[in-house]
Each structure stands twice: as structure tokens, then as C-alpha cells.
């Protein structure tokens, strides 16, 4: 009978993708365990691509986690106390977590943070092990203007100028809630309505779209990490949070634009630093990474 290893990461798309190296490290270190990921059900389509997860239980946020007595429980969600308490409640044989192991450190890139946690516990992890595939770059250029908070949303009229400069194969993506924003960008860019894919792509569709695209232009959001995962050239616009914490890895046709000032990532207005990024900078970077 296989032993169970439970991992908590009850967060979003980008959060899961930054945890892929840690998940793969756990698979290598515990090859005979059945690995269950506690994460939102919407991310299920990504799991086979990681090669690291056997099963998913639907959890959003730090818990509770509907699981009992895993051999090992790993907290890749945060530093607690809610996430730690949620995993303790499953009565694991061993708990790997900040708060019970190494101290939490600010100023660490998200990928390296979780790899470092595992290494402290004797599990080797490679922060560069992010790839889910390599795009043939035969698909469209993607402009993704949305983000979870207004502080990370570059103005739609600027995204529209970029979209208009990228050619006639541009599509505009987003969630169902971002359909009005995507339509505004497309209209301002002179794109036909069928080029608006916001609200029409489930997770599996978004993966298929990004995995074949020639370019992604977006803010600091999950689609940026999906571009990294498929080695798609990308231009990512950062505002209140430094790319040193959440940005793409250096090289391989990824450009992170940042004005060099920190702010509130949950703010209700576009971050002043984000507004300092000009359309010409984004267009030039897009041409550079696709040349």
C-alpha cells in the first residue's frame, strides 16, 4: 500500500507554476509515495504536465484540508498559522513547513523560497526546473490585460496600442470577469470581436493556447508564469512588486519591465511605478524577444 504525501498550495495559477520545481523535487525524494495536492479544482488540467502529482483535493486558501493521516505533509502555501494548523489537523507523520523548520525570509524569489524550504529538510530541489513544454511558436501573440488587483493592471489604452503594433494575429485573453476589459482593449486596438478570447477559455484551453503562442504580453499575473513554463517569449509588466520576487527567470526571451519602485500589490489604483512604463518600451521589448 502506497504511503501518502500531502502538499498544500491552495492558491492560483501563477502560485502553482512557481511551485513546480518543489513538487518535482518531492516526487524525486519520495518516489513510492502517492502525492496529493490540495489546490483549487480549476488548476486540475495542469497537474499531468508537472509529472509530480497523482491526485488533487479541491482546496482554496489555507485550509481546511479534507485529508487524513498522510505520511508526510508539506506546506507550500505560506508560513501560517492557518496553513500549518490545517496540515496539523490531518495528523501527518511528518510536517515540512516554515514555522516548524527554517525561518521565513523576505526578499526571496517565490520559486527559490519553496526550493529552499525543501533543501533545509534534506530534499534537493532545482529552481530552474520550471518547464512544462516548449512552444513551437506557431500560434498567435497574446495580450492579457487583466490582473487580480488594479495596482497590477496597466491601462487598457496602453495595452491597446501595444496590441495594434504587434500585427494581425493578436488575441486578447482574460477571465470571465475581465471580458469588458478585454473587449475595450480589442476595440481600441481595432481588433475584430472574435479576437477576444476572454471568458471563453477554460484552463485546458488556456494551456493549449499559450503552449503554441509566439508571444505573451501581460502584467504580473498567472499567464506570465504559463509563458515561462512553455518557453514562450514574454514581456511582463511589473508595478508594485519587483520581478526579483515573482519575475521570469533571466534569459530565454523573457523581459520583465519595472520602474524600480515598490508599492501596494493589493491597491485599488494602478501603481505609479507601473504607469511609468511606456508603450514604446513594451513594443520594443516585444520585438526584441520575438526577433
Automatic annotation (TrEMBL):
InterPro entries: Glyco_trans_9 (IPR002201), LPS_LOS_Heptosyltrfase (IPR051199). Keywords: Glycosyltransferase, Transferase. GO terms for cellular component: cytosol. One of its GO terms (molecular function) is ADP-heptose-lipopolysaccharide heptosyltransferase activity. GO terms for biological process: lipopolysaccharide core region biosynthetic process. CDD domains: GT9_LPS_heptosyltransferase (cd03789). The keyword Glycosyltransferase applies. This is ADP-heptose:LPS heptosyltransferase. It comes from Nonomuraea maritima.
Amino acid at each position: 500500500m502506497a504511503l501518502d504525501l500531502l502538499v498544500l498550495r491552495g492558491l492560483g495559477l501563477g502560485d502553482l507554476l512557481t511551485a513546480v520545481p518543489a513538487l518535482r523535487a518531492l516526487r524525486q525524494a519520495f518516489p513510492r509515495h502517492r502525492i496529493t495536492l490540495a489546490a483549487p479544482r480549476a488548476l486540475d488540467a495542469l497537474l499531468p504536465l508537472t509529472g509530480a502529482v497523482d491526485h488533487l483535493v479541491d482546496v482554496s486558501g489555507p485550509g481546511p484540508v479534507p485529508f487524513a493521516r498522510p505520511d508526510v505533509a508539506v506546506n507550500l502555501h505560506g508560513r501560517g498559522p492557518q496553513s500549518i494548523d490545517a496540515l496539523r489537523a490531518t495528523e501527518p507523520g511528518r510536517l515540512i513547513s516554515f514555522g516548524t523548520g527554517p525561518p521565513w525570509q523576505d526578499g526571496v524569489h517565490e520559486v527559490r523560497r519553496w526550493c529552499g524550504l525543501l533543501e533545509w529538510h534534506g530534499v534537493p530541489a532545482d529552481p530552474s526546473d520550471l518547464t512544462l513544454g516548449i512552444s513551437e511558436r506557431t500560434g498567435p501573440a497574446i495580450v492579457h490585460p487583466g490582473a487580480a488587483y488594479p495596482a497590477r493592471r496597466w491601462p487598457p489604452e496602453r495595452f491597446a496600442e501595444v496590441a495594434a503594433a504587434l500585427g494581425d494575429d493578436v488575441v486578447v485573453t482574460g477571465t470571465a470577469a475581465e471580458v469588458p476589459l478585454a473587449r475595450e482593449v480589442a476595440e481600441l486596438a481595432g481588433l475584430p470581436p472574435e479576437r477576444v478570447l476572454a471568458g471563453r477559455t477554460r484552463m485546458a484551453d488556456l494551456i493549449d493556447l499559450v503552449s503554441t503562442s509566439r508571444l505573451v504580453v501581460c502584467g504580473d499575473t498567472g499567464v506570465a508564469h504559463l509563458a515561462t513554463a512553455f518557453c514562450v517569449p514574454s514581456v511582463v509588466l511589473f508595478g508594485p512588486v519587483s520581478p526579483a520576487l515573482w519575475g521570469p527567470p533571466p534569459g530565454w526571451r523573457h523581459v520583465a519591465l519595472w520602474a524600480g519602485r515598490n508599492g501596494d500589490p493589493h491597491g485599488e489604483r494602478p501603481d505609479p511605478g507601473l504607469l511609468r512604463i511606456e508603450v514604446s518600451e513594451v513594443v520594443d521589448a516585444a520585438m526584441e524577444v520575438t526577433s
